[in-house]
Design a protein that fits this description.
145 residues; alpha+beta; P-30 Protein; 4-stranded antiparallel β-sheet
Length: 145
């Protein structure tokens, strides 16, 4: 059996294409990983706000206690799907609204001055459409509307 050069080139192009779509580009990856750390919570419960925020070392913008943090009960593929062009809400800010509602756990700050001494109230479980900021098709920001 003879392998044609064009078939080999096609195979290489497909391999590169699949590998680049499987991972965010290097400049996006840190923001995507931070987003997942702060908001991905497929097994999150209302009882785990303080322990989960401490375990993940989630802080506010000034490295103090974060006033509110929302965990989305979904998997990575479901969150990435929100970044589909058909869901684009605001082109100027690259915001995308989910096509379906998601269960979310919202944790609100209770007491403490600096991590790791931040405590949070019992979380609130709700179901709502989510809005994400996306870069290059990858979620990097949760927009709390």
């Amino acid at each position: 059996m003879e392998i044609h050069q064009s078939a080999v080139i096609l195979l290489l192009v497909l391999c590169v294409s699949f590998s680049t779509h499987a991972q965010p580009q290097s400049y996006i990856k840190p923001r995507y990983q931070k987003f997942l750390n702060q908001h991905l919570g497929p097994d999150m419960s209302v009882q785990k706000c303080t322990s989960e925020i401490r375990k993940r070392n989630i802080t506010g913008t000034d490295n103090g206690c974060k006033p509110v943090n929302t965990f989305i009960q979904a998997n990575e593929n479901q969150l990435k799907a929100v970044c589909d062009k058909k869901n684009q809400l605001n082109k100027d800010r690259n915001l995308f609204k989910s096509g379906q509602p998601f269960p979310v756990v919202t944790c609100r700050f209770q007491t403490g001055k600096r991590p790791p001494n931040c405590t949070y109230r019992r979380g609130r479980l709700s179901t709502r459409y989510i809005v994400l900021g996306c870069v290059g098709g990858w979620p990097v920001h949760y927009e709390n509307l």
